[in-house]
Amino acid sequence: MGPDLTRRRVLATGAAAAGAAALMGPFSSTASATAAGRSASGPRPTIVLVHGGFADASCWNGVIERLQQEGYTTVAPANPLRGLPTDAPYLAGVLRSIQGPVVLAGHSYGGAVISNAAAGIPNVKALVYVAAFVPDIGEQLGVLIDKYPGSIIQAATTPVPYPKPDGTTGTDLYLVPDGFRAAFAADLPVHTTRLMQATQRPFDASSFTDLTTAAAWHTIPSWGLVAGSDKAIPPALERYFYRRAAARDVVEVPGASHVAMISHPGTTARLIDTAAKAVR
Description:
Distance between the termini: 26 Å
Largest sheet: 7 strands, parallel
Oligomer: single chain
Shape: globular
Number of helices: 11
Order of helices and strands: EHHEHEHEHEHEEHHEEHEHH
Strand order of the largest sheet: 1-10-9-5-4-2-3
Helix content: 25-40%
CATH topology: Rossmann fold
């Protein structure tokens, strides 16, 4: 672990039901109290939040509410989930449309997308990885996910072929009902995960074999959140990614599932706020 890396242990608060009930609560009284005292050294950045596979932008709702309460402009674009060669340029186009500084956060596969998309875009000032992949140039997610044991995500998927515009056949991955909760969102209420499973957005299986062509974390400072009970991306792999990227701060949330931004929106929002304040 490099000298620039600090690690903060964040205690999970309450049972899953209590955590779900807290989704709509205030961001934090401490954060609100300190907001007025922030440095005015630069404009407040726009926060861009990128979801991963099997999800849509609504997975950031609890985080967005808290960031908006703190006065941040937030954007949560729809990640196409068609593979890195499509998704990264799409996000790069969104980023180029935003005036002023940007703090860019990615969850899961969204971490790979932001790593590729932010390269060469000068107004992206910070990267925040939430239970995310942080690949380097030439790496594939399907190889990285086996670096440490503990992931059950691939075993919980089912392939569904779909026709592509060029006449070829692609393969979408869906999480099966029995595997969705265990692999993806074990710390959320059952009724919530049933809805999430029914409305999931599949992502192209090529996402596991696409080569990373850029790694913006080499030049843009990063922050990371480790989901302590993640069954999609092993916590050990998340720690490895953030250590390799020399993340400025790493928050660990014991007991958090892969969707830590849903079960722990306050912790996630505070980490993003920390990154935003650090680069102003």
